[in-house]
Amino acid sequence: MSATAGSSASTSAVTDKRAERMKRLRELHQKRNEASVLNHKEVVEENKRFQLPDNWQKKQEVAQYRLNEELAKDKAREIGEDYERNKLLDIQADDSERWHRKRDAKHNPDPGFSDFEAATARQYNRLTKQMKPDLEEYQRNKEKMGKDLFYANQNTLIHGQHKDSKEAIDRMVDDLNNQIEKRSKYSRRRRFDDDADIDYINERNMKFNKKLDRFYGQYTQEIKQNLERGTAV
């Protein structure tokens, strides 16, 4: 009896272990399936994001900001408050300064001189913005000259067909005089001081010496004077 009981207990233990392993195996299979489903969903979502335009996220942020702003305006209108005033109260000083800098840069995008081509393009854009075309005169000239002459091509001879008005010539003269007057207020900055001592052998050495003098000049001034006088120890 004891041997039979021991055999039964051993068989039961093996069965329990097998059942436990099968249970763990099923759990692992279930977790693997869940991970596979989640991974597939992430791949689909990532593919959708890749197919969106580059500025989609920015557009979403702008749309959400405008929606929140409209909701805040409606809420302020309901309770009888001034939305713009409340908005200014919530803006910090550094944020306001940063916003004003961006606004000024947008209204005046001229970064200064970079090359002659960019300077010419900026001047051309500035001059064309000042032009105020007379549409009535444009239409009269179109009817007078005819379509073939007015819309000239490489085979059209238009010499002598158009005469500038006195007002247009006066505007051009005034603009040239303004450019001359503006240009006369500027002077070319000298890169070299003719009266300064020459203690360099080339431009790179000159810049290096200026750097040294800026940081250590106050400590080496007396030594330099002694060397120049010939009294250095």
What is the arithmetic mean of pLDDT? 78
Give the biggest sheet: none
**Radius of gyration (Å):** 41 Å
Structural class given helices, strands, pairing? mainly alpha
Helix content range of the residues, please?
A: over 70%
Shape: extended
What are the segments in which pLDDT stays under 50 over at least 5 consecutive residues? none
By DSSP (H or I, 4+ residues per run), the number of helices equals 9
Order of helices and strands: HHHHHHHHH
- Give the DSSP E fraction (strand runs of 2 or more residues): under 5%
- In total, the number of strands is 0
**Terminal Cα span:** 116 Å
Your description of this structure?
This protein has 233 residues and is mainly α. It is 74% helix and 0% strand. It has helices spanning 2-51, 56-78, 83-90, 93-107, 116-130, 135-145, 147-150, 166-184, 203-229.
Describe the secondary structure blueprint for this structure.
Elements (H helix, E strand, L loop, with lengths): L1 H50 L4 H23 L4 H8 L2 H15 L8 H15 L4 H11 L1 H4 L15 H19 L18 H27 L4
Gist of the model:
Helices cover 74% and strands 0% of the residues. It has helices spanning 2-51, 56-78, 83-90, 93-107, 116-130, 135-145, 147-150, 166-184, 203-229. The radius of gyration is 41 Å and the shape is extended.
Which features characterize this protein?
about 230 residues; mainly alpha; about 75% helix
